[in-house]
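User: I'm curious whether this sequence folds into something compact or stays loose and floppy. Could you predict its structure so I can see for myself?
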Amino acid sequence: MGRVVNRAALLQAYLTEHRNATLRPGRLDCVLFAAQWVRRCTGRDLTGDWPGSYRSLEDGFERLKAAGYAGLGDLAAHHLEEIDSWAYAQVGDVATVIEEGAEAMVIVGGAHLHGLAMRGLDVVPLSRAIRVFRP
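Assistant: Here's the prediction. I'll summarize afterward.
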């Protein structure tokens, strides 16, 4: 039997570690922030050799498309179980939202979503989730 993970406590520690994080495309952006979370919870790697391979968000989205994904939701769906609705989301799930006209990846923290935005960690209501995935 696999180990039981208290995702709420693990998420609190993860967010505390990143409380002063700033967006750095290719080093720590919304995708890599969520992917590091998934790796911490499950050991799964969503992004492979992507960290450090691009220097702008535009380049990151080009890399995503070159890998055959139409968007971040498709990347998550390739690796994780998709949940029917944000209403069924659990703490520690990963979601996509539309932020400033672009798709972004965030982490479910109960009634809120936690993500890395231009100004650092940000929180938005869970109802903003477009797609939700379970690591």
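Summary: The mean pLDDT is 93. Residues 64 and 71 are 7 Å apart (CA to CA).
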